[in-house]
């Protein structure tokens, strides 16, 4: 479906765009669930998506000038979410980005209640501001050209993974960085209850490295 003007869709149940194309200068979608398996959602300007259920973007593409998503759950395995400007994603039941990619040329904001699975995935932006229940970044990469702020309520598993930024601020109940890389060109601030940095793990900053204890829920 192609539109030369704005396109707004309200679907109470399933919106099935498997191997399909929805494209408009402005695209707004509200649906119970959305299947974009191997499909494409494209908007040169704003692309807004709201669903209380699953947004299935496996092998799919979400391409926007600026993007805003509020979903119950997001499956982005081998998928692509990309915005030329800001990209904002809230997912109540988390995000599976295994082998997938999230990319913003400006600010990427993530609010992921149940956590982020980024195994072999790539998350990149000029600035990243992320809150997650947990993060598994095994062999994955989170990279910000400027600042990366990551607040993880539970475990931050960066085994064989990379967290890279000019300025890096990490908060986690526990950090596993075995054979992983935490690198800041300028400053790195790490707040964690427990840290495992063995098996060749590397934590480095070009100018200032600060590490402090983060109390658990009991204080």
TrEMBL record:
Ranges where the record places region Disordered: 197-219
Pfam families per the UniProt record, alphabetical: Fil_haemagg
Protein name: Filamentous hemagglutinin, intein-containing
């Amino acid at each position: 479906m192609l539109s030369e003007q704005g396109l707004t869709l309200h679907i109470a149940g399933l919106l099935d765009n498997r191997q399909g194309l929805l494209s408009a200068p402005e695209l707004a979608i509200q649906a119970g669930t959305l299947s974009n398996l191997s499909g494409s959602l494209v908007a040169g300007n704003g692309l807004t998506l709201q669903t209380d259920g699953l947004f299935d973007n496996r092998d799919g593409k979400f391409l926007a000038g600026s993007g805003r998503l509020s979903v119950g759950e997001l499956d982005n395995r081998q998928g692509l979410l990309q915005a030329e400007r800001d990209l904002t994603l809230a997912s109540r039941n988390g995000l599976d980005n295994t082998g997938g990619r999230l990319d913003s040329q400006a600010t990427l904001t993530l609010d992921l209640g149940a956590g982020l699975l980024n195994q072999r995935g790539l998350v990149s932006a000029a600035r990243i501001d992320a809150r997650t229940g947990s993060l598994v970044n095994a062999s994955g990469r989170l990279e910000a050209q400027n600042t990366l702020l990551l607040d993880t309520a539970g475990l931050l598993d960066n085994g064989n993974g990379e967290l890279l930024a000019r300025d890096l601020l990490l908060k986690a109940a526990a950090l596993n960085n075995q054979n992983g890389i935490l690198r800041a060109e300028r400053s790195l601030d790490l707040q964690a209850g427990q840290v495992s940095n063995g098996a060749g793990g590397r934590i480095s900053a070009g100018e200032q490295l600060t590490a402090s204890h983060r109390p658990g829920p009991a204080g």
